[in-house]
Amino acid sequence: xxxxxxxxxxxxxxxxxxxxxxxxxxxxxxxxxxxxxxxxxxxxxxxxxxxxxxxxxxxxxxxxxxxxxxxxxxxxxxxxxxxxxxxxxxxxxxxxxxxx
Length: 100
Known about the structure:
By secondary structure, the protein is an all-alpha fold. Helix content is 71%, strand content 0%.
């Protein structure tokens, strides 16, 4: 589970490591964008991760997992929990429509 209070990376080596990982991930296609979003999430760069998942959702609106992952981030703070509920509901709807 995500921790809202977790500190973002702050040492030069942490930042360099993240930059290297993002560079290797690329941004040319869906899988690379998803990898970038996950790297940002793993390193607790919440605003950047939200932006990355929002970009994925704009490009691939029918992929439930991107709504769910963005919802998981929103769900960590009470003020954004309604946004999480919206994303979770969309993810559920997409999964249900894909099963039929």
